[in-house]
Design goal:
The protein is α/β, with parallel strands linked by helices. 42% of the residues lie in helices and 16% in strands. It folds into two domains: 130 residues, Aspartate Aminotransferase, domain 1, CATH 3.90.1150; 215 residues, Aspartate Aminotransferase, domain 2 (3-Layer(aba) Sandwich). Helix 4 runs parallel beside helix 12, helix 5 packs across helix 6 and helix 7 runs parallel beside helix 8. It is globular.
């Protein structure tokens, strides 16, 4: 085995061997505020009802027509615009990978503002597409001239616009979005509006798709049920013009959504009011967390339209780029796990990303941050 391994490793692409795997932090015994999960469990009565329902699922059979029931339920829940269809993915990650696969023509590229979701670049690289990141402005807004120039230069097959963005948690200017979407149309590309955090946002691009269908005919809207409260279920969906969805759906594995995932998602949609109440509480707690953060001397908390808050920790001097890492380690020692994004992009220097938790978790976090000061 040991003798054959070096030769076998040579079969793995060089760029894959040079990559870092997506890292998931060990959260055992920690207050987990690092992954933008819904912190509230399913209410006990619904846990029992879901358990009974899943117990009756035919797990000995491949997924069948029940998948169409879920698609129909999702279409009703979003009031799917006329002329649009939707497809399912094993979380948004799979949909992003499928888009890269479907658009992998010679010379094709992917473009996105940065900092943003790391899977846009990773999926492009794994599929062999070139990737072009365009830095945001210092206040995390879209750099419209730079984006327009990049679109004209690279003519991307796919342009991602997260709405709101991760990890900055802000919504882009709608007028800037419209102009960028028009610019992508002019070069014959697709725009993917990623609305992973829609349950916590004050706006949705679906309204634009509904009222301006021609201007958004090349726009795909992507959402996930992870932030809705089903992060462990792995269920994402993407909607857009029926001819576009029909082509992308051809590269989807035939049984990519399991019968258990499918049934969990149907159950959740049938009890959407319970999840809506949880989302409302998270939005309220976001306000509490932001109010507490602004009381911390020198700390800058950025406005949020998601279930996370980006915070810049005060540096000791202009050369200090380790303040956030120091706070991250202190919080970890206190049993609180957040996301250290300070090394992800130069614009995120000394920044931590905090997931909005339960009232008690948020208070514990604020107390720990006061101690760090």
């Amino acid at each position: 085995m040991s003798g054959a391994l070096p030769s076998a490793l040579l079969r793995i692409r060089d760029d894959v061997q040079s990559m870092h795997a997506y890292a998931v932090q060990d959260a055992t015994g920690m207050v987990k505020l690092d992954a933008m999960e819904n912190p509230f469990p399913l209410p006990s009565p619904l846990q029992a009802a879901l358990g009974e329902r899943l117990g009756a699922v035919a797990i000995n059979r491949y997924p069948g027509a029940r998948v169409n029931d879920l698609k129909d339920a999702l279409a009703r829940s979003v009031d799917l615009p006329l002329g649009c269809s939707l497809m399912l993915g094993n979380g948004s990650d799979e949909l992003i990978a499928l888009l890269a696969l479907a658009c992998d023509r010679p010379g094709a590229s992917v473009l996105a503002p940065e900092p943003g979701f790391v899977m846009y670049a990773m999926s492009a690289q794994l599929q062999g597409l070139s990737y072009h990141g365009v830095p945001l402005t210092e206040d995390f807004e879209l750099d419209e001239p730079a984006m327009l120039a990049a679109i004209a230069q690279h003519r991307p097959a796919i342009t991602y616009l997260a709405y709101p963005n991760n990890p900055t948690a802000n919504l882009w200017s709608a007028s800037v979005m419209r102009r960028l979407i028009a610019a992508v149309a002019a070069v014959g590309g697709l725009v993917v509006v990623d609305e992973a955090y829609q349950p916590f946002s004050s706006a949705t691009w679906l309204d634009e798709i509904r009222t301006q269908p021609e201007a958004n005919a090349h726009v795909l809207l992507m959402r996930t049920l992870s932030k809705f409260g089903l992060a462990g279920v792995r269920l994402g969906y993407m909607l857009g013009a029926t001819p576009l969805i029909a082509e992308i759906d051809k590269v989807r594995p035939p049984y990519n959504v399991s019968v258990l995932n499918n049934e969990c998602a149907l159950f959740a949609l049938e009890h959407a009011s319970a999840f809506a109440e949880q989302a409302a509480e998270i939005r309220a707690q976001r306000g509490v967390l932001l109010a507490g953060l602004v009381q911390l001397k020198g700390v800058r908390a950025f406005k949020s339209e998601a279930n996370m808050v980006l915070v810049r920790w005060p540096a000791r001097d202009a050369q200090d780029d380790g303040a956030a890492t120091c706070v991250f380690e202190q919080l970890k020692a206190a049993g609180i796990l957040v996301k250290n994004v300070s090394k992800m992009h130069p614009l995120l220097r000394n920044c931590l990303r905090l997931t909005v938790g339960t009232p008690s978790e948020n208070q514990r976090l604020l107390s720990a941050l006061q101690h760090c000061l």
